Amino acid sequence: MDLQHWLNEALANHEKWTADYGTFTPHSSLQVDPALFGSALAELQDRLRDNYPFFHPRYAGQMLKPPHPAAVVGYLSAMLINPNNHALDGGPATAAMEREVVSDLATMFGYGDQHLGHLTSSGTIANLEALFVARSLHPTRGVAYSSEAHYTHSRMCGVLGIEGFPVAVDGLGRIDLDALEDLLKTGKVGTVVVTPGTTALGAIEPVHLVLDVARRYDARVHVDGAYGGFFTLLAGTDLAPEPWEAIGSCDSVVVDPHKHGLQPYGCGAVLFRDPSVGRFYLHDSPYTYFTSDEMHLGEISLECSRAGAAAAGLWLTLRLLPLTRDGLGEVLAAGRRAAVRWASIIRESDSLELYQEPELDIVTYFPRTDPLTLSAVDAASHRVMETGMNAAVDPIFLSVARASTTAFAARHPEVEADADGARVLRSVLMKPESEDYLDTLHARVLSLL
């Protein structure tokens, strides 16, 4: 895709639009010396080189990749106008786009036409809003989440002044249903967070089973799909459908288009199955909502100013890569295929051991050391990561995840527990190019052992 061509198109269209309103003289206070601009820009470009190559499949560290060119062009097109999606007055066009993409997301998750939702600046804020509504509905009851859930939930419970209850996980890093039910029996929990795709291991928690347990105790269910939510597109083809189909019966769901939705940071989203929860957002702004009697997005959001450009970038992307298995789903499927194939290669390796079978696009593994102890595995994993990322020639970029002694014992009892847990190597293959680059990546990891 010729990004330069489409960026030029966006700039040309912006100039045509602005010309419709007549010419004016820009204020002298905004003028800068072209030579100074060039110098400052050169410094910026030089400083930006102090980044890891998120765009390249040799980067398999964290959940980072560049946005799709369509997202860049869509974002830039709206950014030049700089609409604010807080009120319809601040961004009529992008507010309409936001409603459209939120409707698309709601359809993907199985929500009906009567839903409530909006984009946010991050998954953290999206989860905060879901828990804010949970507290409003159950002010005296807390929130349960697995010990492998993202730390945002315990943090946001603190922000909201409600009690958070970490729940033990099973041998695959998913919320333990028996432990959850024991907690629900106490009556202390009003909302259960379930994560279809944990950020450390990519483990798919059983949304359908959690939903059954929670409903028996009059508890809400919130789905943290910030990382894994878009894998709903693979349900019934590449993935077992039950957890994903159950999302449509859950009370709220969060997803991050700036992860698997190919968008630039920050673009999160929160959706509620019951639109009546909008009553908890009610407020009055005598100078903001004045040109339309329609619902303004700021009336159903904890955030006020939000970039309309984020809606435009997502809208344009979904016009080209719709929320279908053959559209955006194929992008996710490529990364998952890479993870599954790499797991198969690691199982046949004499030098590496698979820590846990991948369910999505995260692979966890560790060097086979002699002696095979937690301390040796920890040191070897860290050394491979550090050596790979600091190599002057042919670097690769991995990450590590810390596994507890208990978690290691459940998966690899053959590893001697001579330390308090160990780091294992972790690779996120969320770029579809990882599928073709996998053999090169694997060979480079082996060379570092």
UniProtKB/TrEMBL annotation:
It comes from the Bacteria. The keyword Protein transport does not apply. Pfam families: Pyridoxal_deC. GO terms for molecular function: transaminase activity. InterPro entries: GrpII_AminoAcid_Decarb (IPR050477), PyrdxlP-dep_de-COase (IPR002129), PyrdxlP-dep_Trfase (IPR015424), PyrdxlP-dep_Trfase_major (IPR015421), Pyridoxal-P_BS (IPR021115). Belongs to the group II decarboxylase family. This is Aminotransferase class V-fold PLP-dependent enzyme. It comes from Lentzea sokolovensis.
